[in-house]
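Input (structure):
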């Protein structure tokens, strides 16, 4: 019995050391994997050029995305973040590109063109009806959406569309799962009439939508802030790059400002419903 007690006393500290070593090395390994995905030569040059505005390493680190996660990117557009997320979690996690069926053609084409990089990526409908191809409820570690909330609010049925979007994102997440939102930011003191049509939203507006769906606010990051952006441009946020709707008019001025000032918000689906 004394030998057994001594053995247990020896093993327990070793186990604790091993656990501590794992907890310290895993985040470092995740960081290296994320940096490798960002630096991969499979990314397009035009997308890489925007890293200085979009800060993918800092943004995804703030959201806590791990290579073992099941991640849903909502409305991935042309696939800017798909180029990073799909390879980052390909080996041990699952990546979903979720959007309207008629707007996912570009992502489907990208996946088909490079199966080695994107072959394990999945497509899902969002927003989804009960009979559509949807992400299963309570199955996802992180849902990410980049500059889409203003589109939902600006669509026909605006507030209802946005509320349903947040509800469906809530449903697909596991308890404890993360919702990461990046959006063009309108200063809180501005007239609310300046929202939506300008492409800019207040942080309070996004928080209200998320919290109404049941999310709990975790925190914000200034990683995508741009103090040069005054959010009062003639054609809204699209005056700035990358859209530059005024084309050559004051082009150098808007290029010098750079891309929009953006909120970066993290929410969690509570463990107890």
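Output (sequence):
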């Amino acid at each position: 019995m004394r030998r057994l007690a001594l053995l247990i006393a020896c093993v327990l500290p070793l186990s604790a050391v091993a656990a501590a070593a794992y907890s310290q090395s895993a985040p470092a390994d995740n960081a290296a994997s994320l940096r490798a995905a960002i630096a991969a030569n499979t990314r397009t040059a035009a997308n890489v050029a925007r890293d200085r505005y979009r800060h993918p390493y800092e943004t995804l680190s703030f959201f806590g995305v791990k290579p073992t996660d099941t991640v849903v990117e909502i409305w991935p557009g042309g696939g800017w973040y798909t180029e990073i997320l799909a390879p980052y979690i390909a080996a041990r996690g699952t990546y979903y590109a979720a959007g309207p069926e008629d707007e996912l053609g570009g992502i489907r084409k990208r996946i088909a063109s490079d199966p080695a990089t994107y072959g394990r990526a999945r497509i899902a409908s969002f927003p989804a009806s009960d009979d559509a191809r949807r992400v299963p409820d309570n199955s996802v570690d992180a849902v990410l959406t980049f500059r889409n909330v203003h589109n939902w609010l600006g669509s026909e049925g605006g507030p209802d569309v946005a509320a349903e979007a947040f509800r469906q994102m809530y449903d697909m997440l596991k308890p404890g799962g993360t919702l990461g939102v990046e959006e063009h930011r309108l200063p809180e003191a501005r007239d609310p009439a300046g929202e939506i049509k300008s492409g800019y939203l207040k942080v309070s507006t996004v928080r209200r939508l998320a919290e109404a769906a049941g999310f709990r606010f975790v925190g914000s990051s200034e990683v995508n802030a741009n103090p040069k952006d005054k959010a009062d441009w003639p054609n809204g946020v699209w005056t700035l790059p990358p859209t530059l709707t005024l084309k050559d008019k004051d082009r150098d001025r808007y290029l010098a400002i750079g891309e929009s000032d953006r909120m970066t918000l993290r929410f969690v689906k509570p463990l107890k419903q």
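Notes: The first strand starts at residue 70 and ends at 74. The chain has eleven helices and seven strands.
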